[in-house]
Amino acid sequence: MTATSQAPDYGPEEAAPEVPKVPAEPSGPGAPSEPTGEEQAPVAAPEAPQAPDQGPGEPASEVPAEPPGPGAAPEPTGEEQAPVAAPEAPAPEATKPAPRSEDVPSAPLKLTIEDVSDSSVTVSWEPPESLGTQGLQGYVLELRREGASEWVPVNARPMMVTQQTVRNLAPGDKFFLRVAATNPAGAGPPATLDQPVHIREIIEPPKIRVPRHLRQTYLRQVGEMVNLQIPFQGNPKPQVSWTHNGLALDSKRVSVRNGDQDSILFIRSAQREDSGCYELTVRLETLEARAAINILVIEKPNPPSSVRLVDVWGCNVALEWTPPQDTGNTELLGYTVQKADKKTQQWFTVLERYHPTTCTVSDLIVGNSYSFRVFSENLCGLSDSPAVTKELAHIRKTDIVAKLKEFVERDFSEAPSFTQPLADHTTTSGYSTQLSCSVRASPKPKIIWMKNNMNILGDPKYRTFSEQGVYTLEIRKPSPFDSGVYTCKAVNMLGEASVDCRLEVKGEGWRRISP
After folding, report:
1. Judging by DSSP bridges, how do beta strands 276-284 and 316-322 pair with one another?
2. Fewer CB under 10 Å: which end of the chain, C or N?
3. Can you list the positions of beta strands (E) in 379-413?
4. Are residues 121 and 92 in contact, defined by beta-carbon separation less than 8 angstroms?
5. Chain segment 439-464, per-residue pLDDT in tens
6. Which residues of the chain are in CATH 2.60.40.10 domains?
Protein backbone atom coordinates (compact mmCIF):
# COMPACT_ATOMS: atom_id res chain seq x y z
CA MET A 1 0.00 0.00 0.00
CA THR A 2 1.43 3.36 -1.00
CA ALA A 3 1.35 6.47 1.16
CA THR A 4 0.48 9.93 -0.33
CA SER A 5 1.87 13.18 1.14
CA GLN A 6 -0.77 15.91 1.58
CA ALA A 7 -0.66 19.52 2.77
CA PRO A 8 -1.42 20.08 6.43
CA ASP A 9 -5.02 20.86 7.08
CA TYR A 10 -5.51 24.06 9.09
CA GLY A 11 -8.63 25.26 10.81
CA PRO A 12 -10.68 28.31 9.67
CA GLU A 13 -9.15 30.60 12.25
CA GLU A 14 -5.66 29.31 12.01
CA ALA A 15 -3.37 30.88 9.41
CA ALA A 16 -0.86 28.88 7.49
CA PRO A 17 2.77 29.52 8.38
CA GLU A 18 4.62 31.85 6.15
CA VAL A 19 7.32 30.56 3.84
CA PRO A 20 10.40 32.80 3.43
CA LYS A 21 10.87 34.29 0.03
CA VAL A 22 13.77 33.17 -2.07
CA PRO A 23 15.35 35.62 -4.56
CA ALA A 24 14.54 34.72 -8.11
CA GLU A 25 17.20 33.62 -10.51
CA PRO A 26 17.27 34.86 -14.02
CA SER A 27 15.11 32.70 -16.17
CA GLY A 28 15.96 31.30 -19.46
CA PRO A 29 14.36 32.21 -22.65
CA GLY A 30 11.76 29.47 -22.36
CA ALA A 31 11.10 29.87 -18.64
CA PRO A 32 7.48 30.46 -17.55
CA SER A 33 6.47 33.80 -16.10
CA GLU A 34 6.59 34.35 -12.35
CA PRO A 35 3.41 33.91 -10.42
CA THR A 36 1.72 37.04 -9.19
CA GLY A 37 -0.18 37.66 -6.00
CA GLU A 38 0.35 36.18 -2.59
CA GLU A 39 2.90 33.40 -2.52
CA GLN A 40 1.60 30.09 -1.26
CA ALA A 41 3.35 27.39 0.82
CA PRO A 42 4.76 24.50 -1.15
CA VAL A 43 2.61 21.34 -1.29
CA ALA A 44 4.20 17.88 -1.66
CA ALA A 45 3.34 16.06 -4.84
CA PRO A 46 1.49 12.77 -4.41
CA GLU A 47 3.71 9.75 -4.21
CA ALA A 48 3.27 7.22 -7.01
CA PRO A 49 1.69 3.95 -5.87
CA GLN A 50 3.78 0.82 -5.94
CA ALA A 51 3.00 -2.02 -8.30
CA PRO A 52 1.45 -5.09 -6.72
CA ASP A 53 4.50 -7.24 -7.46
CA GLN A 54 6.92 -4.60 -6.22
CA GLY A 55 9.07 -5.64 -3.28
CA PRO A 56 9.85 -3.43 -0.40
CA GLY A 57 13.36 -2.69 -1.65
CA GLU A 58 12.58 -2.14 -5.35
CA PRO A 59 12.17 1.39 -6.80
CA ALA A 60 8.67 2.59 -7.48
CA SER A 61 7.55 2.73 -11.06
CA GLU A 62 7.18 6.20 -12.51
CA VAL A 63 3.69 7.59 -13.12
CA PRO A 64 3.48 10.16 -15.95
CA ALA A 65 2.29 13.60 -14.87
CA GLU A 66 -0.80 15.04 -16.51
CA PRO A 67 -0.30 18.24 -18.59
CA PRO A 68 -1.50 21.44 -16.91
CA GLY A 69 -4.89 22.78 -17.95
CA PRO A 70 -5.47 26.18 -19.54
CA GLY A 71 -6.07 27.88 -16.20
CA ALA A 72 -3.20 26.24 -14.39
CA ALA A 73 -0.39 28.33 -12.99
CA PRO A 74 2.98 27.99 -14.69
CA GLU A 75 5.50 25.88 -12.90
CA PRO A 76 8.23 27.89 -11.22
CA THR A 77 11.76 27.43 -12.45
CA GLY A 78 14.58 28.18 -10.15
CA GLU A 79 14.71 28.82 -6.42
CA GLU A 80 13.26 32.33 -6.56
CA GLN A 81 9.81 31.08 -7.51
CA ALA A 82 7.39 30.13 -4.75
CA PRO A 83 6.11 26.60 -4.99
CA VAL A 84 2.45 26.22 -5.74
CA ALA A 85 0.41 23.33 -4.38
CA ALA A 86 -0.48 20.84 -7.15
CA PRO A 87 -3.64 18.73 -7.16
CA GLU A 88 -3.27 15.11 -5.92
CA ALA A 89 -2.73 12.59 -8.77
CA PRO A 90 -5.28 9.72 -8.86
CA ALA A 91 -3.99 6.09 -8.56
CA PRO A 92 -3.88 4.20 -11.85
CA GLU A 93 -6.78 1.79 -12.30
CA ALA A 94 -4.58 -1.14 -13.67
CA THR A 95 -2.52 -1.57 -10.51
CA LYS A 96 -3.58 -3.92 -7.63
CA PRO A 97 -2.23 -3.71 -4.11
CA ALA A 98 -0.05 -6.65 -2.90
CA PRO A 99 -1.74 -9.02 -0.40
CA ARG A 100 -0.92 -8.47 3.18
CA SER A 101 0.96 -11.16 5.09
CA GLU A 102 -2.01 -11.72 7.39
CA ASP A 103 -4.29 -12.44 4.41
CA VAL A 104 -2.35 -15.46 2.99
CA PRO A 105 -1.54 -18.69 4.90
CA SER A 106 1.81 -19.20 6.52
CA ALA A 107 4.32 -21.85 5.39
CA PRO A 108 3.35 -25.53 5.92
CA LEU A 109 5.15 -27.28 8.78
CA LYS A 110 7.40 -30.35 8.94
CA LEU A 111 7.84 -31.12 5.24
CA THR A 112 9.23 -34.67 5.33
CA ILE A 113 10.10 -37.45 2.88
CA GLU A 114 8.02 -40.53 3.70
CA ASP A 115 9.20 -42.98 1.04
CA VAL A 116 11.54 -43.11 -1.94
CA SER A 117 11.42 -45.86 -4.57
CA ASP A 118 13.11 -46.28 -7.92
CA SER A 119 10.30 -44.38 -9.69
CA SER A 120 8.50 -42.26 -7.08
CA VAL A 121 8.86 -40.19 -3.92
CA THR A 122 6.24 -39.51 -1.24
CA VAL A 123 6.33 -36.39 0.94
CA SER A 124 4.08 -35.23 3.76
CA TRP A 125 3.64 -32.06 5.76
CA GLU A 126 1.48 -30.52 8.45
CA PRO A 127 -0.95 -27.60 8.02
CA PRO A 128 0.45 -24.10 8.59
CA GLU A 129 0.00 -22.31 11.86
CA SER A 130 -1.95 -19.47 10.22
CA LEU A 131 -4.52 -20.01 7.47
CA GLY A 132 -4.94 -16.29 6.70
CA THR A 133 -8.07 -14.18 6.84
CA GLN A 134 -9.69 -16.01 3.93
CA GLY A 135 -9.13 -19.62 5.03
CA LEU A 136 -7.27 -22.42 3.24
CA GLN A 137 -7.90 -23.35 -0.38
CA GLY A 138 -5.29 -26.15 -0.73
CA TYR A 139 -1.62 -26.91 -1.20
CA VAL A 140 0.60 -26.63 -4.27
CA LEU A 141 3.61 -28.97 -4.52
CA GLU A 142 6.41 -27.81 -6.82
CA LEU A 143 9.53 -29.51 -8.19
CA ARG A 144 12.81 -28.02 -9.39
CA ARG A 145 15.43 -30.27 -10.92
CA GLU A 146 19.03 -29.84 -9.92
CA GLY A 147 20.72 -27.28 -12.14
CA ALA A 148 17.41 -25.69 -13.24
CA SER A 149 15.95 -22.41 -11.99
CA GLU A 150 12.28 -22.96 -12.73
CA TRP A 151 9.86 -24.51 -10.25
CA VAL A 152 7.32 -26.78 -11.94
CA PRO A 153 4.02 -27.51 -10.17
CA VAL A 154 3.34 -31.19 -9.60
CA ASN A 155 -0.45 -30.75 -9.34
CA ALA A 156 -2.36 -28.45 -11.70
CA ARG A 157 -4.60 -27.06 -8.97
CA PRO A 158 -4.40 -26.82 -5.19
CA MET A 159 -5.24 -30.06 -3.37
CA MET A 160 -6.56 -30.48 0.16
CA VAL A 161 -4.09 -33.21 1.14
CA THR A 162 -1.07 -33.24 3.41
CA GLN A 163 0.67 -36.12 1.63
CA GLN A 164 1.45 -36.50 -2.03
CA THR A 165 3.41 -38.91 -4.25
CA VAL A 166 5.45 -37.77 -7.25
CA ARG A 167 5.48 -40.60 -9.80
CA ASN A 168 7.03 -41.50 -13.16
CA LEU A 169 10.54 -40.66 -12.03
CA ALA A 170 13.67 -42.26 -13.45
CA PRO A 171 16.69 -43.60 -11.57
CA GLY A 172 19.34 -40.90 -11.36
CA ASP A 173 16.91 -37.97 -11.07
CA LYS A 174 17.88 -35.33 -8.50
CA PHE A 175 15.53 -32.49 -7.62
CA PHE A 176 14.19 -30.18 -4.89
CA LEU A 177 10.62 -30.08 -3.57
CA ARG A 178 8.62 -27.34 -1.91
CA VAL A 179 5.00 -26.92 -0.89
CA ALA A 180 2.96 -23.78 -0.27
CA ALA A 181 -0.54 -23.20 1.14
CA THR A 182 -2.95 -21.07 -0.94
CA ASN A 183 -6.26 -19.27 -0.53
CA PRO A 184 -8.17 -16.69 -2.60
CA ALA A 185 -5.79 -13.97 -1.39
CA GLY A 186 -2.77 -15.81 -2.89
CA ALA A 187 -0.07 -18.31 -2.02
CA GLY A 188 1.80 -18.16 1.22
CA PRO A 189 5.54 -18.68 1.67
CA PRO A 190 6.65 -22.23 0.69
CA ALA A 191 8.28 -24.88 2.84
CA THR A 192 11.31 -26.35 1.04
CA LEU A 193 13.25 -29.55 1.70
CA ASP A 194 16.72 -28.92 3.03
CA GLN A 195 18.35 -31.58 0.86
CA PRO A 196 17.62 -32.61 -2.74
CA VAL A 197 15.84 -35.90 -3.44
CA HIS A 198 17.96 -38.47 -5.33
CA ILE A 199 16.12 -41.33 -7.09
CA ARG A 200 18.27 -44.44 -6.99
CA GLU A 201 17.56 -47.87 -8.39
CA ILE A 202 16.54 -50.17 -5.52
CA ILE A 203 18.81 -53.18 -5.25
CA GLU A 204 17.09 -56.47 -4.39
CA PRO A 205 19.61 -59.00 -3.05
CA PRO A 206 19.92 -62.12 -5.21
CA LYS A 207 18.16 -65.25 -4.00
CA ILE A 208 17.90 -68.73 -5.54
CA ARG A 209 14.81 -70.88 -5.04
CA VAL A 210 15.79 -74.50 -5.61
CA PRO A 211 12.77 -76.77 -6.35
CA ARG A 212 12.07 -79.46 -3.77
CA HIS A 213 12.88 -82.39 -6.08
CA LEU A 214 16.34 -80.97 -6.74
CA ARG A 215 17.32 -80.61 -3.09
CA GLN A 216 18.34 -84.27 -3.13
CA THR A 217 20.48 -86.10 -5.64
CA TYR A 218 18.83 -85.89 -9.07
CA LEU A 219 18.95 -89.33 -10.73
CA ARG A 220 18.84 -89.89 -14.48
CA GLN A 221 19.59 -92.94 -16.59
CA VAL A 222 22.16 -92.95 -19.36
CA GLY A 223 20.62 -91.49 -22.52
CA GLU A 224 17.85 -89.62 -20.78
CA MET A 225 17.38 -85.84 -21.04
CA VAL A 226 18.28 -83.43 -18.22
CA ASN A 227 16.22 -80.23 -18.10
CA LEU A 228 16.56 -78.19 -14.89
CA GLN A 229 14.77 -74.86 -14.40
CA ILE A 230 16.02 -72.92 -11.36
CA PRO A 231 14.10 -69.73 -10.39
CA PHE A 232 15.96 -66.81 -8.80
CA GLN A 233 15.32 -63.23 -7.69
CA GLY A 234 17.34 -60.02 -7.93
CA ASN A 235 16.99 -56.42 -9.06
CA PRO A 236 18.50 -55.16 -11.27
CA LYS A 237 19.04 -58.26 -13.40
CA PRO A 238 21.94 -60.17 -11.81
CA GLN A 239 24.76 -62.05 -13.50
CA VAL A 240 24.22 -65.83 -13.68
CA SER A 241 26.90 -68.48 -14.06
CA TRP A 242 27.21 -72.29 -13.77
CA THR A 243 30.08 -74.59 -12.88
CA HIS A 244 30.48 -78.38 -12.98
CA ASN A 245 32.62 -79.76 -10.16
CA GLY A 246 34.19 -76.31 -9.83
CA LEU A 247 35.05 -76.03 -13.55
CA ALA A 248 33.37 -74.29 -16.45
CA LEU A 249 30.64 -76.19 -18.29
CA ASP A 250 31.36 -78.11 -21.49
CA SER A 251 29.36 -76.09 -24.03
CA LYS A 252 29.30 -79.05 -26.43
CA ARG A 253 27.32 -81.17 -23.98
CA VAL A 254 25.57 -78.70 -21.68
CA SER A 255 23.57 -75.66 -22.74
CA VAL A 256 22.34 -72.88 -20.44
CA ARG A 257 19.63 -70.30 -21.02
CA ASN A 258 19.40 -67.41 -18.56
CA GLY A 259 16.22 -65.35 -18.23
CA ASP A 260 15.23 -62.44 -16.02
CA GLN A 261 13.89 -64.73 -13.28
CA ASP A 262 15.23 -68.23 -14.00
CA SER A 263 18.09 -70.22 -15.45
CA ILE A 264 17.67 -73.47 -17.42
CA LEU A 265 20.39 -76.14 -17.65
CA PHE A 266 19.82 -78.63 -20.48
CA ILE A 267 21.59 -81.88 -21.46
CA ARG A 268 20.06 -83.67 -24.43
CA SER A 269 21.51 -87.15 -23.76
CA ALA A 270 23.05 -87.63 -20.33
CA GLN A 271 26.15 -89.76 -19.89
CA ARG A 272 27.88 -91.00 -16.78
CA GLU A 273 30.56 -88.31 -17.05
CA ASP A 274 27.80 -85.70 -16.68
CA SER A 275 27.38 -86.75 -13.04
CA GLY A 276 28.65 -84.39 -10.36
CA CYS A 277 27.91 -81.15 -8.55
CA TYR A 278 26.48 -78.32 -10.63
CA GLU A 279 26.69 -74.98 -8.84
CA LEU A 280 24.56 -71.97 -9.82
CA THR A 281 25.88 -68.52 -8.86
CA VAL A 282 23.71 -65.39 -9.02
CA ARG A 283 25.79 -62.24 -8.51
CA LEU A 284 24.66 -58.62 -8.14
CA GLU A 285 27.51 -56.17 -7.52
CA THR A 286 29.05 -57.35 -4.23
CA LEU A 287 26.12 -59.62 -3.35
CA GLU A 288 25.79 -63.20 -4.55
CA ALA A 289 23.78 -66.38 -3.92
CA ARG A 290 24.86 -69.96 -4.62
CA ALA A 291 22.98 -73.24 -4.99
CA ALA A 292 24.45 -76.71 -5.56
CA ILE A 293 22.56 -79.44 -7.45
CA ASN A 294 23.91 -82.99 -7.47
CA ILE A 295 23.18 -84.98 -10.62
CA LEU A 296 23.86 -88.73 -10.82
CA VAL A 297 23.61 -90.49 -14.19
CA ILE A 298 23.32 -94.26 -13.72
CA GLU A 299 22.81 -97.44 -15.75
CA LYS A 300 22.26 -101.15 -15.13
CA PRO A 301 25.12 -102.98 -13.37
CA ASN A 302 27.24 -105.80 -14.72
CA PRO A 303 26.49 -109.34 -13.51
CA PRO A 304 28.62 -110.91 -10.77
CA SER A 305 32.07 -111.83 -12.02
CA SER A 306 31.62 -115.54 -11.22
CA VAL A 307 29.41 -117.93 -9.26
CA ARG A 308 30.32 -121.46 -8.11
CA LEU A 309 29.02 -124.39 -6.10
CA VAL A 310 30.72 -124.61 -2.75
CA ASP A 311 29.05 -127.72 -1.29
CA VAL A 312 26.09 -130.06 -1.77
CA TRP A 313 24.70 -132.04 1.15
CA GLY A 314 21.31 -133.60 1.66
CA CYS A 315 18.74 -131.30 0.04
CA ASN A 316 20.99 -128.21 0.38
CA VAL A 317 23.43 -126.37 -1.90
CA ALA A 318 25.97 -123.70 -0.87
CA LEU A 319 26.77 -120.98 -3.47
CA GLU A 320 29.41 -118.23 -3.62
CA TRP A 321 29.99 -115.39 -6.13
CA THR A 322 32.12 -112.28 -6.60
CA PRO A 323 30.66 -108.73 -6.93
CA PRO A 324 30.42 -107.13 -10.40
CA GLN A 325 33.25 -104.95 -11.65
CA ASP A 326 30.82 -102.16 -12.68
CA THR A 327 27.88 -101.36 -10.44
CA GLY A 328 26.33 -98.83 -12.88
CA ASN A 329 27.67 -95.70 -11.17
CA THR A 330 25.52 -96.29 -8.08
CA GLU A 331 25.20 -98.63 -5.11
CA LEU A 332 23.82 -102.13 -5.53
CA LEU A 333 20.46 -102.93 -4.03
CA GLY A 334 21.48 -106.58 -3.75
CA TYR A 335 21.48 -109.83 -5.72
CA THR A 336 18.75 -112.07 -7.07
CA VAL A 337 19.41 -115.85 -6.89
CA GLN A 338 17.42 -118.27 -9.08
CA LYS A 339 17.34 -122.07 -9.52
CA ALA A 340 16.26 -124.33 -12.39
CA ASP A 341 15.61 -128.10 -12.50
CA LYS A 342 17.43 -129.87 -15.29
CA LYS A 343 14.24 -131.63 -16.35
CA THR A 344 11.94 -128.58 -16.64
CA GLN A 345 14.53 -125.84 -17.33
CA GLN A 346 12.23 -123.31 -15.64
CA TRP A 347 13.85 -120.65 -13.44
CA PHE A 348 12.42 -119.86 -10.02
CA THR A 349 13.57 -117.02 -7.76
CA VAL A 350 15.06 -118.17 -4.47
CA LEU A 351 16.37 -114.87 -3.00
CA GLU A 352 15.73 -111.19 -3.91
CA ARG A 353 17.86 -108.15 -3.01
CA TYR A 354 20.18 -110.38 -1.07
CA HIS A 355 23.26 -108.46 0.03
CA PRO A 356 25.87 -111.11 1.04
CA THR A 357 27.88 -112.90 -1.67
CA THR A 358 27.26 -116.38 -0.23
CA CYS A 359 24.00 -118.22 0.32
CA THR A 360 22.48 -121.67 1.00
CA VAL A 361 19.60 -122.98 -1.09
CA SER A 362 17.52 -125.57 0.76
CA ASP A 363 14.46 -127.77 0.23
CA LEU A 364 15.69 -129.23 -3.05
CA ILE A 365 14.08 -132.39 -4.39
CA VAL A 366 16.02 -135.62 -3.99
CA GLY A 367 17.05 -137.12 -7.28
CA ASN A 368 16.96 -133.87 -9.27
CA SER A 369 19.88 -131.86 -10.67
CA TYR A 370 19.88 -128.05 -10.42
CA SER A 371 21.53 -125.06 -12.10
CA PHE A 372 21.85 -121.68 -10.34
CA ARG A 373 22.28 -118.11 -11.58
CA VAL A 374 22.78 -114.74 -9.87
CA PHE A 375 21.76 -111.21 -11.07
CA SER A 376 23.09 -107.87 -9.79
CA GLU A 377 20.49 -105.15 -9.08
CA ASN A 378 20.59 -101.35 -8.65
CA LEU A 379 18.11 -98.48 -9.09
CA CYS A 380 17.94 -99.16 -12.84
CA GLY A 381 16.97 -102.80 -12.31
CA LEU A 382 18.60 -106.20 -12.76
CA SER A 383 21.72 -106.70 -14.81
CA ASP A 384 21.08 -107.59 -18.43
CA SER A 385 22.68 -111.03 -18.00
CA PRO A 386 23.32 -113.29 -14.97
CA ALA A 387 26.28 -115.29 -13.75
CA VAL A 388 25.45 -119.01 -14.12
CA THR A 389 27.04 -121.99 -12.34
CA LYS A 390 29.10 -124.18 -14.64
CA GLU A 391 28.32 -127.40 -12.74
CA LEU A 392 25.04 -129.06 -11.83
CA ALA A 393 24.12 -129.77 -8.25
CA HIS A 394 22.93 -133.39 -7.98
CA ILE A 395 20.65 -134.13 -5.04
CA ARG A 396 21.26 -137.87 -4.37
CA LYS A 397 19.44 -140.28 -2.16
CA THR A 398 21.29 -141.16 1.00
CA ASP A 399 22.32 -144.78 1.52
CA ILE A 400 20.09 -146.26 4.24
CA VAL A 401 20.78 -149.62 5.86
CA ALA A 402 17.50 -150.99 7.08
CA LYS A 403 17.32 -153.63 9.80
CA LEU A 404 14.29 -155.76 9.15
CA LYS A 405 12.26 -156.79 12.12
CA GLU A 406 9.90 -159.68 12.45
CA PHE A 407 6.65 -158.84 10.75
CA VAL A 408 3.58 -159.55 12.84
CA GLU A 409 0.46 -159.57 10.73
CA ARG A 410 -2.35 -157.63 12.30
CA ASP A 411 -5.97 -158.65 12.06
CA PHE A 412 -8.07 -155.66 10.91
CA SER A 413 -11.39 -157.60 10.93
CA GLU A 414 -14.20 -155.53 12.40
CA ALA A 415 -17.95 -155.90 12.72
CA PRO A 416 -20.02 -153.24 10.96
CA SER A 417 -20.62 -149.96 12.78
CA PHE A 418 -22.25 -146.78 11.53
CA THR A 419 -20.02 -143.73 11.91
CA GLN A 420 -22.74 -141.46 10.45
CA PRO A 421 -26.40 -142.53 10.90
CA LEU A 422 -29.38 -141.68 8.72
CA ALA A 423 -31.19 -138.41 9.44
CA ASP A 424 -34.92 -137.69 9.26
CA HIS A 425 -35.82 -135.91 6.08
CA THR A 426 -38.74 -133.97 4.60
CA THR A 427 -39.12 -133.47 0.87
CA THR A 428 -41.62 -132.36 -1.75
CA SER A 429 -43.53 -134.64 -4.03
CA GLY A 430 -41.93 -134.93 -7.46
CA TYR A 431 -38.43 -133.93 -6.35
CA SER A 432 -35.81 -136.69 -6.04
CA THR A 433 -34.18 -137.00 -2.63
CA GLN A 434 -31.29 -138.94 -1.11
CA LEU A 435 -30.65 -140.66 2.22
CA SER A 436 -26.99 -141.21 3.23
CA CYS A 437 -25.01 -142.90 6.00
CA SER A 438 -21.43 -144.10 6.53
CA VAL A 439 -20.36 -147.59 7.66
CA ARG A 440 -17.08 -148.93 9.01
CA ALA A 441 -16.46 -152.69 8.71
CA SER A 442 -13.84 -155.24 7.66
CA PRO A 443 -14.36 -157.22 5.54
CA LYS A 444 -16.62 -155.06 3.42
CA PRO A 445 -20.21 -155.46 4.58
CA LYS A 446 -23.35 -156.21 2.59
CA ILE A 447 -25.81 -153.29 2.59
CA ILE A 448 -29.56 -153.90 2.74
CA TRP A 449 -32.09 -151.02 2.33
CA MET A 450 -35.60 -151.43 3.69
CA LYS A 451 -38.78 -149.38 3.83
CA ASN A 452 -41.05 -150.06 6.73
CA ASN A 453 -38.95 -153.23 7.33
CA MET A 454 -39.47 -154.42 3.76
CA ASN A 455 -36.51 -154.95 1.40
CA ILE A 456 -36.65 -152.52 -1.48
CA LEU A 457 -33.67 -153.82 -3.47
CA GLY A 458 -34.57 -154.39 -7.10
CA ASP A 459 -37.35 -151.74 -7.08
CA PRO A 460 -36.65 -149.35 -10.04
CA LYS A 461 -37.93 -146.44 -8.02
CA TYR A 462 -34.84 -146.69 -5.81
CA ARG A 463 -31.18 -146.48 -6.68
CA THR A 464 -28.25 -147.26 -4.35
CA PHE A 465 -24.56 -146.43 -4.62
CA SER A 466 -21.52 -146.22 -2.32
CA GLU A 467 -18.21 -144.37 -2.20
CA GLN A 468 -15.40 -144.61 0.38
CA GLY A 469 -17.71 -146.21 2.98
CA VAL A 470 -20.60 -143.77 2.40
CA TYR A 471 -23.83 -145.48 1.30
CA THR A 472 -26.66 -143.56 -0.37
CA LEU A 473 -30.26 -144.37 -1.26
CA GLU A 474 -31.84 -142.21 -3.96
CA ILE A 475 -35.65 -142.05 -4.19
CA ARG A 476 -36.70 -140.90 -7.64
CA LYS A 477 -39.58 -138.43 -7.78
CA PRO A 478 -41.22 -139.51 -4.55
CA SER A 479 -44.92 -139.15 -3.81
CA PRO A 480 -46.68 -138.92 -0.48
CA PHE A 481 -47.05 -142.72 -0.61
CA ASP A 482 -43.21 -142.99 -0.33
CA SER A 483 -43.28 -141.55 3.16
CA GLY A 484 -42.24 -143.93 5.91
CA VAL A 485 -39.33 -145.34 7.92
CA TYR A 486 -36.23 -146.27 5.91
CA THR A 487 -33.57 -148.64 7.31
CA CYS A 488 -29.98 -149.31 6.25
CA LYS A 489 -28.52 -152.64 7.46
CA ALA A 490 -24.82 -153.60 7.16
CA VAL A 491 -23.91 -157.32 7.51
CA ASN A 492 -20.59 -159.20 7.41
CA MET A 493 -19.21 -162.35 8.96
CA LEU A 494 -18.51 -160.64 12.24
CA GLY A 495 -21.95 -159.14 12.78
CA GLU A 496 -24.48 -156.63 11.60
CA ALA A 497 -25.70 -153.12 12.39
CA SER A 498 -28.59 -150.95 11.23
CA VAL A 499 -29.83 -147.33 11.36
CA ASP A 500 -33.31 -145.83 10.73
CA CYS A 501 -34.74 -142.50 9.61
CA ARG A 502 -38.19 -141.12 8.81
CA LEU A 503 -38.96 -139.64 5.38
CA GLU A 504 -41.98 -137.37 4.93
CA VAL A 505 -43.09 -136.51 1.38
CA LYS A 506 -45.53 -133.60 1.09
CA GLY A 507 -47.65 -132.53 -1.83
CA GLU A 508 -46.54 -129.93 -4.39
CA GLY A 509 -48.63 -127.18 -2.77
CA TRP A 510 -46.48 -127.39 0.38
CA ARG A 511 -43.69 -125.26 -1.09
CA ARG A 512 -45.90 -122.98 -3.17
CA ILE A 513 -45.82 -119.39 -2.00
CA SER A 514 -49.06 -117.47 -2.41
CA PRO A 515 -48.79 -114.07 -4.07
Report:
1. unpaired
2. C
3. 381-382, 387-388, 393-394
4. no
5. 999 899 999 999 999 998 888 889 99
6. 1-8+75-202, 204-298, 306-394, 414-509
